[in-house]
Structures are given as structure tokens and as C-alpha cells.
Amino acid sequence: xxxxxxxxLIQPCLKKPQINKITKEDCILPVLVMLKLxxxxxxxxxxxxxxxxxxxxxxxxxxxxxxLQIKSYASYDFNTSCKEAYNAIIDLNxxxxxxxxxKEKNTNKExxxxxxxxxxxxxxxxxxSEDKVLFNTLxxxxxxxxxxxxxxxxxxxxxxxxxxxxxxxxxVARIIFDEYVTAAxxxxxxxxxxxxxxxxxxxxxxxxxxxxxxxxxxxxxxxNYKWIAGxxxxxxxxxxxxxxxxxxxxxxxxxxxxxxxxxxxLYYIASICINLKNDRSDxxxxxxxxxxxxxxxxxxxxxxxxxxxxxxxxxxxxxxNNKGIEILETxxxxxxxxxxxxxxxxLGLSKLTRLDTDAEDYFHIFLKDNKxxxxxxxxYQKLAWQCILNGDTVGYLSNMQKxxxxxxxxxxxxxxxxxxxxxxxxxxxxxLKARLLFxxxxxxKALNALDSAGHIVNGTNKQLELEYLYRKARIHxxxxxxxxxxxxxxxxxxxxxxxxxxxxxxASLQLGYIYEARKDTTMAIKHYNNAIQMKNTDxxxxxxxxxxxxxxxxxx
Length: 556
Prior knowledge:
- This protein has helices at residues 63-66, 80-90, 94-107, 113-129, 132-138, 141-151, 157-176, 180-200, 205-219, 226-232, 238-254, 262-277, 280-291, 294-302, 304-316, 321-330, 342-352, 359-369, 376-389, 393-405, 412-423, 429-439, 443-451, 462-478, 482-496, 503-517, 521-533, 540-555; strands at residues 72-73, 76-77.
- The protein is mainly alpha-helical.
- The protein has 2 domains: 9-296, no CATH class; 443-555, Serine Threonine Protein Phosphatase 5, Tetratricopeptide repeat (Alpha Horseshoe), CATH 1.25.40.
- It has a two-stranded antiparallel sheet.
């Protein structure tokens, strides 16, 4: 990893502790990338989330600040009690956190950190539930907290940091509910606050966490959305963000004052590597680190967010889907903790890619308790797919009808589900199996399923033929046979470049990855640009974003 650098994750010495309209997908690492998950590792998320998210990275600590202990700055005292409340928030144990926060307010009335923690609770409640009623109820709290911080002590690095965190968290919350103009303003405010804070306090480690995520996000924006960065007056690159996040991670491993940032920083690094950087070796290094860190293992057992984050590392990268499922299944949710309902959708999806017959149970749980707006159409699509696998055409059609009448088409998964429902074309069962098994990392089984569908390549159905060629290429690619992969990717592009399906666009993206790995910059740039210029409607924004990220890497 040629950034100053995360490869140290696997060095022996560290194995001891070891936004046309902006859509949610354009905001990368969606919600998770901005989640204040103190000790979350993804994906999910993560991730993640980016989350954000994704939803997501910090390297050398300036010598001047390394001598300081950031414990108390006038009206900002991030003391043991506040850290305990912070931990409870990450566990989604808001009842415990609120009790600790109130106790701190009573005993240390000048301390403003509890109000920052209050904002974290509001943000995570909204982000985890996507409940618009809750959002409308809580959003007036932002201005009250901004006033508190602005009236407090300014001679502290926590002053601008807390202001920036509040602006960022509410910006992400607004993005969920399409309040893009105000969100852009708030991101602009946060970016400027963080930049100024870095100038005045260059060694203040927490500052780099949010600044690193922003720099990475900005660096991945496709050219046709560069005006976003203009609105927020920001510049950045993926590598710059990763470098800053790596500083945070390194500091958290060496200094107990920052140890609560370990998994959060690691989660952002993983999310950015998974979603933007396309470097599997980096993610494998992170997984190795996670497996050797007892603290993160313990957090994975106590926090639904951390548990999701760790599982997502295995699932999203196809590193070990079985392990990811095991981590999600063995987690016992806290009965009095805030519900993180999305984890049931993620578990159902992971089990579906293994063709488990009980996958539908988790989609039903997700739909039953869901108060949000995203992934509802997608969940019904997955239930429809389960019906196809079971030979139940009537059940498939019933779920397809529900896609048309429930949920919203904001995320690309929901848009793709709606497209399938509106076309009325029932999937080919063997191609569906191949798709699912591939997504789970079961390549041999996916290839067997695909071989059983070879008879459909007869020129009578363009979509089926394109899907067959595309999936063949993807399997060979992941199996390491890039020569066969290139052959099938080129066939996919030739036959599908004028179609609206996503196959040709993603084939171009994957070719960009292959040639980048081969250090053939000319060919990589050609295919990344082709991916951005394709006419696909499905997954258009995420493919363009990843291609732009590739171009940005090659420009460095």
C-alpha cells in the first residue's frame, strides 16, 4: 500500500496490540462512513458507512504534539466518564449513555463534551433507523448545540472539532432525507472548521479522523460531480485521506489517550479500501489485524455496529462469507439497546448468496421492524429470488408487485429492484444461482451453475447473453485467470456498450482494475473513462465513482 502507509498493520511489532441530483450513493460510504463508531471495524460500512460508510486511515504524529496529553481543555474535558458514555453509545446502549451524560452534566457543569455525546446519540438514532419522524423531532437540537460550543471556550482543539462533528453528523442525516442544499452547507462548514483546526493544532489526532474521511470522499467524486467539491470549497484525494486516518490508527495503538479511536479508524480505512481503493491486499491486512486484536473481538460481541463492521470485512470482500455469517449469527442483541435493523438485511443477503433456505427469515425481520426508507424494495427482490430458487413463480410475482408499491428508489439496490419489477422478466435460475454464489465468493459452485446455463448464449436474448458473458468474466477474474477474464469482459463490452444494462460498464471498470494492476496506465485510463461514459442506468453512479477513483490513483 503505497501511502505512508497501512502495510505496517501486518508488521510484527503491531501484531502485539494489534451528491443532475445528488443521490445517497453519490455521497459514498453512505451513512456508515460518517457513523461515529468508536471501535467499529465492517463495512458496514461499512464500510463502511464508506459507513460511510461508510459511512471508510492516519500516519505520523507531529513531534510537537506527541508530548501533550489531551485530557482537559477548559470547557472540554473528555474524561473517563465521557469515554464510558462514548463506549455505551457505540454499543447503541443509549439508556446507559444518557445516564452517564446526565451525571457528568450534574457534576461538571462547565464540560461541553456531554453535549457532543448527545449529538452522537441523535445522529446514530437517525442513521440506524432512517426514521423521518425522529429526524424531524431531533433536528432542532443542532442549532442549540452549535450555540453552546460557540459560547464556550475557544482556546481548545475540541472547540472547532466538536462544531465540525455536529455539522458533519447532521449533514449525513440530511442526505438520508434528501436535504442536499443544507447538507452541502454543513459539510462546507465542517471542512473549513477541521482545516483551520489542523492549522492551529497540527497534532490533534481526533481532527484527522473526520478530515481524513472527507479528503478520501472528495478524491473519489467523478468529474461530472466535481461541482460538489466546489460547493463545499474542498480538495482532497483518497491517498491523502488514508494517510490521515493511518495517523489516527497508529496513535490509537501507541497512546492510551486515543485507544478508543482504534476500531473507528480501522473501520474507515477498511471502508475506503473496499469501496474506493480496490486493493484486496490492504483489506486482507486489516482482517489479519482484526483477528489478532482482542479488544476488537470483545467489541464485536457487545456492539451491533462493531459486529456488523467486522462481519462486513469478510462478506463485502468475499474473503470468507461463511465467517461473516457466523459473526452476525452468533451476536446476541442487547434487549434494551437501540435496534440496528439493517444488520438483518445484511445477514439475509449473505445467507442468500450461500443459497441458504432460511435467508428469507432475516428479510422478513428487516421488513417487519423497519422504520426507514432504504432497501425495502431490495429486500422484496431478494424474497422474490428466494421464491425462484424454490420454484415458486407465483411467490416471485407477488414480491415483485410489492416492490412497485412499497419503499423508495433512492439507493442503487432499490433502483435495480424496481427496474426488474417493471421489466417483468423472470430471472434465469442458473444465472441467478451463479450471480448469488459469485457474490458470496463461492466461485467453483458459481462456475458450475453458469456452465449449466451455457445454452442461453444463442443470440435470441441480449440481456441473458450479456449476463452470461459478464458473470463468466467476473468468476475467472476473481479466480485469478485474468486472460480469460479479459476475453469475456471485452465480449461483454462489444455486445453491451449501447445497452442500458450495467454489464458493459462494470466490465470496463474491471478491465481498468486489471490493467492498473499490470501497471499498463494507458489501457487502465482508457477503460476507466469508458466505464464513466457508458449508457448504463443500473449502478451508474457507483461504477462512475469507482472508475473516477481509479483515475485519481493513476494521476498520482
